[in-house]
């Protein structure tokens, strides 16, 4: 498809596309032809009518998400080629897949895999798809068929999850089931740690795969320490800390469902002693905790800012939260602190943490700067894709 529906840009507004940035903003559009509808493929042209590329049309701030810079059909072969490329990258970058120590990973990371608006996570034999554009939602069945071809017998189900496009809420449903009684939860392994993943009821696709490498780093630092895992969700960092030899681990989350899942994951890995899982507000817990009780803290809150207008409030929240953690951690303690807010870049986040440290008047050193793993690649032409920021702090 393509060729019939067209977008023409204003003069000079083609520069970002010439640098292969995959978004066309509504303010850059001069006119349309062919009456494109949400989800349809459109061809994008400069003011001078030079062909620039082809992508999915959608009313809103981001009007076109570019799929290709060539006049090629967006069909089953297109999806198959892109998915094959994505899978081959994971095979190269994640040796643990072949080693058998990991069977869950991100197969498609939107713009990072040249498929803007599409997320695909693999949990053992289940592919969980999230579509964040009208175009990807319209193509979900075709993409599921391509997934079956590319992954062959490696997957036995494809689940479409939590599509939200403006005011439109897509259906959550299985696009493919080899077995009608396919389970709604997989037991997966990540770096040798085991987890239950519920893609139907869990947040995002069911698990936060983007913290895999950072969880492994927590494991390296945890030996002999009392650990506090704030905003713990299903206990990923807690399991790794205890695997690393932590003396104890306290996991805190405001969701009872998350705490129940955390407890189940701890039991799954054989940890029934020296653990405490508490359903309460993480900030309130930190505010009341005894100074010096914990030698290792993980501070991994949900996104404080999903839109640019919320950025100032988000930075204030990061400063406040990190100031409390720096104040409360034991002398010689370590803090893993994160932001997953895309509109807060790594410089903004580091400055917020710096301000928190200055406020506490404790000596703080940065040991590591953290980001997302190799199966969450960042398109070099789309730096916005680097959403996960983290710092490992040593507090004297």
Written description of the protein model:
The structure is a single chain. The chain has 396 residues and is of the alpha/beta class. The protein has three domains: 6-68, PUA domain (Archaeosine Trna-guanine Transglycosylase, Chain: A, domain 4, Roll); 76-189, Transcription Regulator spoIIAA; 208-395, Rossmann fold (3-Layer(aba) Sandwich), CATH 3.40.50. Helix content is 29%, strand content 29%. It is built from eleven helices and 22 strands. The protein has helices spanning 15-18, 76-93, 95-99, 134-138, 140-151, 212-221, 236-243, 256-268, 282-288, 311-328, 346-360; strands at 6-9, 23-25, 29-33, 41-45, 51-57, 62-68, 104-109, 118-123, 126-131, 157-160, 164-165, 168-169, 173-177, 185-190, 193-198, 226-230, 248-253, 275-279, 296-299, 333-339, 364-370, 389-395. Strands 18-17-16-19-20-22-21 form a seven-stranded mixed beta sheet, sandwiched between helices. It has a six-stranded mixed beta sheet with strand order 2-6-5-4-1-3. A five-stranded mixed beta sheet has the order 7-8-9-10-13. Strand 11 and strand 12 (168-169) form a beta hairpin. Helix 2 packs across helix 5 (140-151), helix 6 packs parallel to helix 7 (236-243) and helix 10 (311-328) packs across helix 11 (346-360). The longest helix is centred in the N-terminal third of the chain and has 18 residues, at 76-93. The radius of gyration is 22 Å and the shape is globular.
């Amino acid at each position: 498809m393509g060729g019939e529906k067209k977008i023409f840009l204003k003069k000079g507004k083609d520069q970002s596309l010439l640098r292969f940035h995959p978004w066309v903003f509504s303010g850059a559009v001069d006119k349309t032809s062919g009456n494109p509808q949400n989800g349809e493929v459109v061809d994008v042209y400069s003011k001078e009518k030079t062909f620039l590329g082809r992508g999915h049309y959608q009313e809103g701030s981001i009007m076109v998400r570019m799929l290709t810079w060539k006049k090629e059909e967006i069909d089953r072969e297109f999806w198959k080629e892109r998915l094959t490329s994505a899978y081959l990258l994971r095979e190269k970058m994640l040796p643990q897949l072949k080693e058998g120590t990991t069977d869950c990973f991100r197969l498609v990371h939107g713009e990072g895999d040249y498929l803007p608006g599409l997320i695909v996570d693999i949990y053992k034999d289940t592919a969980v798809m999230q579509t964040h554009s009208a175009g990807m939602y319209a193509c979900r069945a075709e993409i599921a068929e391509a997934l079956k071809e590319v992954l062959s017998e490696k997957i036995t189900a494809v689940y479409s999850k939590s599509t939200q496009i403006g005011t439109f809420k897509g259906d959550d449903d299985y696009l493919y089931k080899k077995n009608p009684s396919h389970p709604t939860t997989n037991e997966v392994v990540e770096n040798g740690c085991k987890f239950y993943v519920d893609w139907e009821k869990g947040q995002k696709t069911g698990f936060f795969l983007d913290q895999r490498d950072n969880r492994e780093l927590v494991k390296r630092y945890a030996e002999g320490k009392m650990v506090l895992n704030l905003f713990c969700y299903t206990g990923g960092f807690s399991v790794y800390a205890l695997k690393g030899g932590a003396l104890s681990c306290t996991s805190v989350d405001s969701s009872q469902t998350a705490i129940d899942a955390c407890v189940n994951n701890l039991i799954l890995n054989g940890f029934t002693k020296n653990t405490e899982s508490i359903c309460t507000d993480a900030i309130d817990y930190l505010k009341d905790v005894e100074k010096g009780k914990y030698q290792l803290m993980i501070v991994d809150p949900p996104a404080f800012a999903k839109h640019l207008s919320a950025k100032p409030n988000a930075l204030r929240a990061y400063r406040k939260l990190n100031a409390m953690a720096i104040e409360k951690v034991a002398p010689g303690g370590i803090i893993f602190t994160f932001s997953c807010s895309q509109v807060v870049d790594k410089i903004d986040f580091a400055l917020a943490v710096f301000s928190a440290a200055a406020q506490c008047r404790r000596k703080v050193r940065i040991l590591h700067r953290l980001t997302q793993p190799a199966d969450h690649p960042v398109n070099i032409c789309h730096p916005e894709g680097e959403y996960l920021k983290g710092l490992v702090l040593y507090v004297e």
